[in-house]
Structure formats: C-alpha cells, structure tokens
C-alpha cells in the first residue's frame, strides 16, 4: 500500500513509522523512505501531504482554530469592470494608503488597462455579514514544518503547527464576484458536486494584529500600489450586508468516491510535449464526479506510476524515475508547439465555452456560473510570460527530492527559489544553480489589484469595520511560485509557512492565480482531507488567503481535465493542465 505524499505528491514508498506517522519526505510523489524526525526540516513543507489524518496532530495543540476567514475570491470579467464598479461605489477612495507604488512599476504594461464593467449584484448570497473571528494571526515558533507544499495529512510531533498559539479556522471565506453570480452554497449539494461550498464566509477579528505595512513593503513589489480604479462590489447580496457568513460547507464529503475511482488508474506514459496534440480530447468530464478519472492519453506518468490505496482512502503514487535532472536537461515548455492540432474557429470556441458553462449550470440548482476575476487577455499574457520564463534559466523543472521522490507538478520560482529539499527560500536553485527570474511587473500589478479589490470588498461588506489591515494586509510579493499541474497533478494539504517569521506574523496574504484547467481546491482548519472544504478554482480565479486565514491548510485535490478556456488554449497553445501562481512576501 502506498500513501499520498506531500504537497501534491503521492508516494508509494512512504514508510509508515512505528508511531503511525509517515515520513514527510514523502511529500508529493515517490516519497522517500527516510523516517521523519522532529528535526527534519522537510517535514510537512510545501507539497508534502500524506492524506491521512494525523494522530497527535499539531492542530490539537492550537488554542484557537485557524481560520480561512480571509480566503477571498475576487472575480470579474476584466479588471476594468471592477474599476468602473468601484468608481461608482466610491470604494476606491477608502484606502488611499494602499497600492502606492512607483509609477515606474506600472511601466507600459496593460494587464490592467482594459475597461470593463462590474456587476456586483451577482455576489454570492452568503456574502455580506461578518462572523467574529476567534483569534489573531498565528505566531509560529517553528518555521520548518508544514511549510508550503509539504502537506502531510497528518501532523508530526514537533511540527510547526504544534506551536501555534492560535488555530486557523475556515469559518469565513469571501468570494467576491462581479458580473455574474458565483455558485450558491447548497446549490450543488444534492449531486455531490464539488461546486458546493461556503462561497462567501467572512469574519472579522478585532484582536487581529495590525500588520505593520511599512513603506519598505513597496520596494519589492506593487501589491499595495495606488489604484484609483479599485473595486467595490456592490449589491453583493442585493445590497444586504447583514447576511450571515456561512461557515458550513456541504462539500466536505464530496468526491470521496473519486479517490477510489482514481485508485488503480495507471495512465500510459506519454511525452511531455505531445499534450497539445490532444487538445480536442473530449473526456467525459463531470465536474461533480470525475468518473472517468484521467484518460491515459493525457496522463503525465512521470508523476504517476503506481497508485495504491493508502490509509483513510487516500492515494499514494509511486514514482519509478527521478526526473529532476532529466527535467532540467529538457526545459519544460508550458506552451509547446502544436502538432497537428485542429484550431477552433471563434464561433466554435464560444460554443464550447457555453457548453462548459451549461455543464455547471446543470449541476448547480441555482444555475450560477463563476466568473473569472481577470479576463482571458490577462490569462493569455500570464501564460505567455510564464512560458518564456519557464524555458529560460531557473524555469520550469520537475522538483524532486534526493531520494527520487518527485513533486506532483512542474515548478518555477520567481524572485526567490523555494527548495523542496529544505523547505526554505534561497537565491538560487540547488539542483542547477539557476537564479530565479524576477517577478514581472505585470504580475505585481495583478497582485496589487487583487489585494486592493479584495480589501474594497471587505470594507463594502464589513460595515463599521475599520481594521482592514488586519483583515487583509497589503503585501508586496518578492516570491512567486508557479506550479503547473498536469491532468493528474495534485498538491496535498499543507500550510504556506516557509516565508519569514515577520511575514507570517503579519499574516501577509498569499495571492493565488489559477489559469487553465479547473481544480478542486481544498482548505480547512486542519490537515484533514475528509473534512476539508472545497472550492473549484477556475481559470481566471484569484484566491487570497491572508490575515487570520494565512495559515489555512490547503491543497489541490484534483484537476478537471479539459476545462480550460478554449480561447486560452488557442491563443497560447498551453498544455493541458493548470497553471497556478502563488505570490508571497518573504
Ligand atoms: O495550486 C494551487 O492552487 C495551490 C498552490 C499552493 O498551495 C502552493 O504552491 O503552495
Ligand atoms: Fe500552498
């Protein structure tokens, strides 16, 4: 039997320790056999995540529950839509101290220049009320365990979480949507689809520490840059801000069968760069139930060789090859040249898009469609930038471990390198000495916009609440970790906590962009997959977890193949799969 590994990885070789814990070196794929020790810095870092519930989990030591109260999901058809809506609402004048950045940072990029309209009326009904938060930001004493990507679904003695004074909670999740409604909780519960979720749960906590947003925070980025067009989503719930945030998720038990479905699937091996030749694959995708699992044709077997059912019905995936060096030798092309792919004409693209929407509509009783926060134009640019950077020094590679375990994704770090071996950030990549490319200014802009929009939303729905800095601190990213998930990619539950102690203590947000195929994103107070809440992140979605939710456990349970916007694929030749960018401030 093998076990799901850490941060998106799964291992068929994860040793079960005598005490019932798994080595956290077995974090994604092909886990190591090194027994875990409290001194092991690899423990539960980014991507490490055996999906079994721990005994003596660190969380049990929490005095307070961790919160995901600040998982924001701003959405809009395009940045300008938000701008216009904000101007009308006047919300963008609420935080003049935010987003002030050198004009030069804006350069001549136009990612945020498009003009659109915002329809905040379509916000989730649950948005609008606040729920008292129980605790302040975490103050970690042990930065080594349970870091980014390392996400054993159990905790280890001595893990970082053991030292938490507070326990994050997933009671509140904001899901800012504009233009179109987001999925309404309960609308998907009947069929067990993963769309059902606590869309708009919010909370405030007067006890939350006010982050010290110093001018220096702007030096590395523009996350708090001045953007007069910032958004305010009005009429979130027909203008009623008294709605109670829903802290409940009926999706907790969703997809439990999916795990079993995937067990035993052993996709045939394929070449990395032939994915686009199958762009027209029409898998029997069911958003709610991935009955078809991953078609052999699109499986990336570099990441998946052996699947076995692990404890608590979680998967482990063994890897038969250590592709680290191989990947380095052969750059991972996010957008490989097409080989005989039939191009879709615009009208057909529209049709396909509509079909996808219809699929969701058929699932959700309320017929809601999740609108992307940024538009296809931005997505295309992001992909192209990532593709170019990914082919150069420090570009995409197959991260892995000394023992041969591979992460269940391709990765590229910008700004600083995150080393899966040590769960630490550095100036270069140990595997090849490459220095990470800098974070493009366009990305800084988008991050700043996302934070600004989210803050505007918080203020909008949090009448009387002044502590916006505690709710969602400004952040100037100096780290961007780009992950590319193939159809079989995963990322186990983990906490992002390899950033500096100061960053963690200030609860500076992690801003996550999703592009390409949709993904089932798990999050929760604990490393508990079975009880984790779920949200489908689609292309164009932005998810932010900061403030008291900074330490939520989160991960990617699955990728929904063939769900990427066709227009995106058309314009970029992006591989099948999902590109995720997470921005942090060290
Ligand atoms: O892909 C995602 O949505 C999450 C990525 C993540 O959690 C990470 O890179 O630490
Ligand atoms: Fe993460």
Automatic annotation (TrEMBL):
The record ties this protein, via SUPFAM superfamilies, to: Clavaminate synthase-like (SSF51197)
Q: Which GO terms describe its cellular component?
A: cytoplasm
Q: Where is this region: Disordered?
A: 1-78, 142-166
- Where is the Fe2OG dioxygenase domain positioned along the sequence? 476-586
Provide the leader sequence positions: none
List the InterPro entries hit by this protein, alphabetically: Alkb, AlkB-like, AlkB-like_sf, Oxoglu/Fe-dep_dioxygenase_dom
Q: How is the cofactor bound?
A: Binds 1 Fe(2+) ion per subunit.
Q: What is this protein called?
A: Fe2OG dioxygenase domain-containing protein
Which source organism does the UniProt entry give?
A: Citrus sinensis (Sweet orange)
Lineage runs:
Eukaryota, Viridiplantae, Streptophyta, Embryophyta, Tracheophyta
């Amino acid at each position: 039997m093998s076990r799901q590994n850490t941060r998106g990885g799964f291992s068929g070789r994860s040793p079960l320790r005598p005490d019932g814990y798994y080595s956290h070196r077995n974090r994604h794929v092909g886990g190591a056999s090194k027994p875990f020790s409290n001194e092991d810095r690899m423990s539960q870092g980014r991507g490490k995540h055996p999906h079994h519930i721990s005994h003596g989990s660190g969380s049990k030591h929490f005095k307070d529950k961790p919160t995901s109260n600040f998982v924001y999901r701003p959405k809009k058809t395009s940045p300008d839509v938000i701008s216009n809506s904000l101007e009308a609402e006047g919300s963008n004048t609420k935080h003049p101290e935010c987003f002030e950045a050198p004009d030069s940072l804006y350069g001549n990029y136009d990612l945020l220049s498009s003009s659109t309209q915002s329809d905040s009326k379509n916000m989730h009904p649950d948005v609008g009320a606040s729920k008292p938060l129980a605790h302040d930001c975490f103050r970690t004493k042990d930065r080594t365990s349970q870091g980014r990507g390392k996400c054993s679904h159990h905790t280890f003695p001595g893990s970082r979480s053991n030292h938490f004074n507070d326990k994050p909670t997933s009671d509140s999740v904001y899901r800012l949507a504009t233009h179109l409604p987001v999925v309404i909780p309960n609308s998907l519960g009947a069929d067990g689809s993963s769309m059902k979720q606590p869309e708009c749960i919010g909370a405030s906590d007067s006890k939350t520490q006010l982050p010290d947003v110093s001018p220096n925070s702007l030096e590395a980025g523009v996350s708090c840059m001045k953007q007069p067009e910032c958004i305010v989503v009005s009429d979130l719930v027909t203008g009623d801000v008294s709605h109670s945030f829903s802290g409940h998720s009926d999706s907790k038990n969703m997809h439990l069968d999916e795990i079993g479905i995937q067990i035993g699937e052993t996709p045939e091996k394929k070449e990395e760069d032939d994915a686009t030749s199958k762009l027209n694959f029409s898998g029997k995708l069911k958003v709610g139930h991935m009955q078809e699992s991953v078609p052999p044709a699109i499986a990336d077997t570099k990441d998946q060789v052996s699947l076995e059912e692990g404890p608590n019905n979680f998967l482990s995936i063994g890897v038969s090859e250590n592709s680290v060096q191989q990947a380095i030798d052969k750059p991972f092309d996010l957008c490989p040249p097409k080989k005989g792919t039939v191009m879709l004409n615009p009208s057909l693209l529209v049709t396909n898009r509509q079909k996808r929407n219809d699929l969701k509509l058929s699932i959700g009783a309320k017929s809601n469609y999740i609108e992307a926060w940024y538009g296809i134009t931005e997505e295309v640019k992001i992909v192209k930038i990532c593709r170019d950077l990914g082919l150069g020094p420090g570009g995409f590679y197959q991260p892995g471990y000394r023992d041969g375990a591979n992460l269940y994704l391709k990765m590229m770090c910008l700004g600083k390198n995150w080393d899966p071996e040590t769960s630490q950030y550095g100036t270069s990549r140990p595997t090849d000495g490459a220095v990470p490319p800098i974070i493009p200014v366009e990305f800084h802009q988008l991050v700043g916009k996302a934070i600004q929009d989210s803050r505007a939303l918080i203020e909008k729905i949090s009448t009387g609440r002044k502590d916006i800095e505690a709710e969602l601190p400004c952040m100037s990213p100096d780290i961007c970790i780009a992950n590319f998930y193939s159809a079989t990619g995963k990322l186990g539950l983990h906490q992002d906590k390899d950033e500096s102690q100061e960053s963690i203590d200030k609860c500076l947000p992690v801003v996550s962009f999703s592009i390409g195929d949709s993904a089932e994103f798990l999050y929760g107070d604990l490393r508990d997959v079975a009880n984790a809440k779920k949200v489908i992140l689609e292309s164009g979605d932005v998810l932010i977890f900061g403030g008291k939710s900074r330490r939520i456990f989160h991960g990617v349970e699955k990728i929904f193949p063939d769900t990427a916007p066709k227009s995106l694929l058309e314009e970029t030749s992006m591989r099948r799969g999902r590109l995720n960018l997470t921005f942090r401030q060290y």
